[in-house]
Amino acid sequence: MNPTRVVAKHVPLIKFLGKRTHSAKNISSDISTPHTHSQAPAALPDSFVQYRLRAQQHGPLGATVLKAPSKGSIAPVAGEYFLTRDLPSRFHYTKLDQAEIEEINSGGADLLF
């Protein structure tokens, strides 16, 4: 297939509309002049420690931490159960006997109904 390939200039399939607005000289002049971000605060904080004392991210960052009040022990009310093994026996799985296990393992092909 390579011998049949015609050597020609590559033409991209995407056609861009309009004129290019970003040239190399425009970009380099924007980068070389430092300026603050448009949403940046007017003045920087005095120190990082002072900033951390006032900042709150998911709660206070200071050394004073309020403890939650003690709720005591948690126990289920009568008729409520936290674990399935604590339920009455009528809610437990039935035990399989050996004959039933053999029927399941055989696939049920030799069962007569």
TrEMBL record:
Source organism per UniProt: Nadsonia fulvescens var. elongata DSM 6958
Protein name: Uncharacterized protein
One annotated Gene Ontology cellular component of this protein: mitochondrion
UniProt family annotation: Belongs to the alpha-ketoglutarate dehydrogenase component 4 family.
Subcellular location field: Mitochondrion
Example of a GO biological process term: 2-oxoglutarate metabolic process
Domain of life (superkingdom): Eukaryota
Lineage: Eukaryota, Fungi, Dikarya, Ascomycota, Saccharomycotina
Record's keyword terms, sorted: Mitochondrion
Primary subcellular site in the record, as a coarse category: mitochondrion
